[in-house]
Amino acid sequence: MEKKILSSSEIDRIRTSFAAQSLMRTFGAELGEIAPGRVEITAPILPGSRQQHGFAHAGLTFSLGDSAAGYAALSMMPEGAEVMSVEVKINLLAPAKGSRLIAIGKVVKPGRRLVVVSAEVFAEEAGTRKLVALLQGTMIPV
Amino acid sequence: MEKKILSSSEIDRIRTSFAAQSLMRTFGAELGEIAPGRVEITAPILPGSRQQHGFAHAGLTFSLGDSAAGYAALSMMPEGAEVMSVEVKINLLAPAKGSRLIAIGKVVKPGRRLVVVSAEVFAEEAGTRKLVALLQGTMIPV
Amino acid sequence: MEKKILSSSEIDRIRTSFAAQSLMRTFGAELGEIAPGRVEITAPILPGSRQQHGFAHAGLTFSLGDSAAGYAALSMMPEGAEVMSVEVKINLLAPAKGSRLIAIGKVVKPGRRLVVVSAEVFAEEAGTRKLVALLQGTMIPV
Amino acid sequence: MEKKILSSSEIDRIRTSFAAQSLMRTFGAELGEIAPGRVEITAPILPGSRQQHGFAHAGLTFSLGDSAAGYAALSMMPEGAEVMSVEVKINLLAPAKGSRLIAIGKVVKPGRRLVVVSAEVFAEEAGTRKLVALLQGTMIPV
């Protein structure tokens, strides 16, 4: 990961793509810190994003982790490229209780043909963060 | 899988839990056929459920597949039990284009301590179904 | 999967590659039926292939499943191509007791850039087969 | 992970179980550092452990990573417990070239019913270590 800083056009590419994902708007999600090979996405646990016990649905947790990992991959790709998820594995470590989720996606292994990524998802409750999910996956440039 | 038919209270347990998942309402999702070890969930690809190219977001695909697999597991569990996803792996096979998704969750291996599940997710476009994702995972009774 | 039958050079490609995998010889593994998108590998559970309770080690189960899935992918690829595992997920369903394992690898979704595969691994004891593992993964032509 | 040091009987439990895994002997594998929630296993890439290009077979890489992760889980479990792999996902990041592999298994999330683990596998060539695989999985006490 020799690249140390993202250009403003590389950051714009991520912001533009994120803004075009209507599911992220539905979830009230926002991009956080964007760095080479590392992207953060946060979202409140909205009344409409829950499972049967009122916690964040695994689908919300997955969506944020998958998108954060995908944009982490995109941050390492050449101009003009886009990214798609090939496969993602999620381990759900604890119920996602709290007011919001923070997903941190990271590039594990950049590559021309495939990018291996991971993501951690934390639930924030009363100011404390708890790790609730771990994702490992593969992204492909398209 | 010796059980051949679900009692109405077993079906109600699934319907009640599904109705309590607010994310499923947000997605406009509906339960389809419910059988022992096999549950179907369908959802339109709503304007608010999309990725940057207008196709279904992987998060929608995952959510439906995960829930269908979870309820397939629940259909095999003793009364009073609930179910949680331990881990799920999704392979995304093709862009999820079309008007709606159909997720079919199945029990691969029932068990007292863990239930191994799979799910197929199809995208329906102009009456044809295309397999767009395959999930394999583990559910735990709680 | 329009191809209905493998040519003898396509079958030879698989046999030659398999024969060059020294781990398969160490395990006493043999190729079984080879068909387009479907390859079988069997191996005895040798005294040197076991875990601490005398059953087949998960590493043996994985190796056979991964190789069967890889050769199933290779059976669908253009001449001259070889195949590598990108990622594989295995669910271990039951202890692998018995005298031998049978792995059946299948192509779920062929593709020019990536091939999605699955494999089932059975343990054979006193003539009965029991499903002991399920694999889902991604192969890449190289 | 409140436990800071392993007792000699806890270390013996791991050594005894490892010694009983005949596959580890077949691979020439050895236990390295053992700490609470962290276990190392190394093995030469023997002539009989290879794939068709002479590199370590994915089955060797998996076996070492899976066992290292399993023993990391065992190191956190109460006396008398044993551990089995429920499911493991491996991403193969690079060809495993070199003279030996080093697998480092770690507990990500301990638990009474399930333990979430990860493992990194490195290939050592001429004194340099390269990350060749990443595993994420679930172990169960038995």
TrEMBL record, chains A, B, C, D:
Family to which this protein belongs: Belongs to the thioesterase PaaI family.
Domain of life of the source: Bacteria
Protein name: Uncharacterized domain 1-containing protein
Signal peptide: none
Entry GO MF terms: fatty acyl-CoA hydrolase activity
InterPro entries reported in the protein's UniProt record: ACOT13, HotDog_dom_sf, PAAI_dom, Thioestr_dom
Pfam short name (any one): 4HBT
Residue ranges of every copy of the Thioesterase domain listed in the record: 53-127
Keyword Hydrolase included in the entry's annotation: yes
UniProt keywords, alphabetically: Hydrolase
